[in-house]
Design brief:
There is one protein chain. The chain has 499 residues and is of the alpha+beta class. It folds into three domains: 22-67 and 88-131, no CATH class; 134-203, no CATH class; 210-497, Beta-lactamase (3-Layer(aba) Sandwich). Helix content is 42%, strand content 20%. The protein has 16 helices and 21 strands. The protein has helices at 9-35, 55-66, 92-104, 108-116, 134-148, 175-186, 210-223, 266-276, 283-293, 298-310, 318-334, 378-392, 397-401, 408-419, 427-430, 479-497, and strands at 43-45, 48-49, 70-74, 77-81, 89-90, 124-126, 130-131, 156-158, 163-165, 170-173, 195-197, 200-203, 229-236, 242-248, 251-252, 259-260, 341-342, 374-376, 437-444, 449-460, 463-477. The protein has a six-stranded antiparallel β-sheet with strand order 15-14-13-21-20-19, sandwiched between helices. A three-stranded mixed β-sheet has the order 2-1-6, with helices on one face. The chain starts with 8 loop residues before the first helix and ends with a helix. Residues 32-37 and 115-120 have low confidence and may be disordered.
């Protein structure tokens, strides 16, 4: 029997498979060889993917991402910022050599093996190298603010109503805060990150400021055609803000200005008495204090000074009164009130000490010819009232200057005494109606009037404040004219705190 001859199909199939594998491998090698000269997969420039791209294509991709406009949103406005407008420049030439190093360091066959098996490649990023002009960006922001800002309009003084014309809200660009936000967007490749909501300051507060109140007061004094010297000190007890105004013939002058203290000197005398007093008031002391403050009796005030001079709570003689005045001056200097003093008794002829030189009464540019034995300034008396108020609340300069000698209860008693000085709707009280409570001491000199003053703590629903007003006219002034002027100014201040 003859052996059968045939084709070895298994061998042929194996050969075909081998040839096909070799062919496919050669095809893949061909395709990979075309990719190998390009930038490695997984590579990015400044976080812009450039793997598989040629250097030219990578440059183009990078420039497309970073030269795209940055979107700026200013409230409901959209502004497109061309990076070139702020001097933005890509330093691609310094980035590309680092990118090509990744390609040069790769082994062809190792990379081909990973390519065949679709192995993920290591991601590498060449940091962005770019710059822009800070000066140009700041100039751009300033121009942007000039075009889109709508600053609010503050209230204005309205002498017709003795109040204020309401202001208008507005908004302004916060250029300082916007700068780093735009800088970050310029250096970002993600389109979403290249959108900036600009920080805008909303100006919604339209209350007048103390400066606006000052303008209203100046206009008010001018309206009265007051040709003398006008001094006002105002202290906001909520915020600690101060307002100083000194007008001579309606024109601003620098303070402080020395005035005759008149009966307002009874406030520091009262403070000195309580600083020396130990324990509760006796009925006699209550009576003398009441007559000094409520009735403004000079005899009662002299009695307080003699009690201070004796130091034992008993009324003494004139020499004790002079010693008392020395103690009062020492207390005032301890408090830093260098322009206020009393050099003698008020109701005893000849019972005086030498006048004192102060910063206010030694200036040579203006002179109110104040009482040489009894002087103050609007600032000093206002500051003392603020100290009394702070002491009543348990703190402040008085309690520091007189540790263990003054208590909040004693300071509240002083305020009560000043509040009981209810002499009708005149001066500051007359301008603090209907709801103001006024603790004050007023004063004027002998007829014809040349000096008038009022020093007050004013408590109102809209805020509390200390206010002192001193006016001087060497040619004399009518009492009613002075009263109307002070009432009008006090009304303006009350309206500021109670719009």
């Amino acid at each position: 029997m003859r052996a059968r001859s045939g084709i070895n199909w298994l061998g042929i199939f194996s050969a075909v498979c081998l040839l096909a594998a070799i062919g496919l491998t050669l095809v893949e090698v061909f395709f990979y060889s075309r990719l190998f000269p390009t930038l490695p997969p997984g590579l990015s420039l400044g976080e812009v993917p450039v793997g598989g791209l040629t250097e030219a294509a990578a440059r183009s991709q990078l420039e497309t991402a970073y030269t795209a406009p940055v979107e700026l949103q200013y409230l409901n406005h959209v502004i497109l910022l061309d990076p070139a407008a702020v001097g933005f420049e890509l330093n691609t030439d310094s980035m590309m050599p680092e990118a090509t190093q990744y390609r040069a360091s790769e082994n062809f066959w190792a990379g081909f093996w990973d390519y065949l098996w679709l192995r993920p490649r290591q991601f590498n990023d060449v940091p962005l190298r770019a710059d822009f002009s800070e000066e140009k960006l700041r100039a751009y922001l300033e121009d942007l603010a000039a075009r889109y800002d709508r600053p609010g309009q503050p209230p204005k003084a309205d002498i017709g109503t003795l109040g204020f014309v309401p202001g208008e809200p507005g908004h302004t660009l916060d250029t300082q805060a916007a700068f780093p936000l735009i800088e970050t967007a310029l250096m970002a490749s993600d389109p979403l990150t290249r959108v900036v909501t600009l920080p805008v300051i909303e100006q919604t507060t339209t209350r007048p400021t103390l400066a606006t109140l000052g303008e209203l007061i100046r206009q008010d004094v001018a309206q009265f055609q007051f040709t003398g010297l006008f001094s006002l000190y105002l202290y906001d007890l909520q915020t600690g803000q101060e307002l100083d105004i000194h007008l001579l013939n309606g024109e601003d002058v620098n303070g402080p200005v020395a005035f005759s203290a008149m009966s307002t000197i009874k406030i520091p005398i009262m403070v000195a008495f309580f600083a020396q007093k130990d324990g509760p008031l006796t009925p006699d002391e209550e009576l003398i204090l009441g007559r000094s403050i409520d009735e403004s009796a000079n005899t009662a005030t002299d009695q307080l000074m003699t009690m201070l001079g004796r130091g034992d709570g008993l009324v003494g003689d004139a020499q004790d009164g002079l010693e008392g005045s020395r103690k009062i001056v020492a207390d005032l200097q301890r408090l830093g009130l260098a322009n206020t003093y009393i050099s003698g008794l008020l109701d005893v002829a000849g019972a005086v000490l030498a006048p004192l030189a102060t910063p206010a009464n030694t200036r040579t540019d203006l002179n109110t010819f104040p009482d040489p034995f009894n002087q103050t300034t609007a600032e000093d008396m206002g500051a003392l009232l603020v100290m009394i108020q702070q002491c009543a609340q348990g703190g402040g300069t008085l309690m520091v200057a007189f540790p263990g000698q003054l208590t909040p209860d004693e300071c509240r008693t002083m305020i009560d005494l000043l509040t009981n000085n209810a002499v009708g709707p005149i001066f500051i009280a007359g301008g603090s109606l209907p709801n103001g409570v006024v603790a004050h001491k007023h004063g004027w000199d002998r007829l014809p009037l040349t000096n008038v003053a009022d020093a007050a703590l004013v408590y109102t629903p809209g805020g509390n404040y200390a206010m002192t007003i001193y006016i001087n006219n060497p040619d004399s002034m009518g009492y009613e004219d002075a009263d109307r002027l002070i009432i009008s100014v006090a009304t303006a201040v009350y309206g500021y705190f109670n719009p």
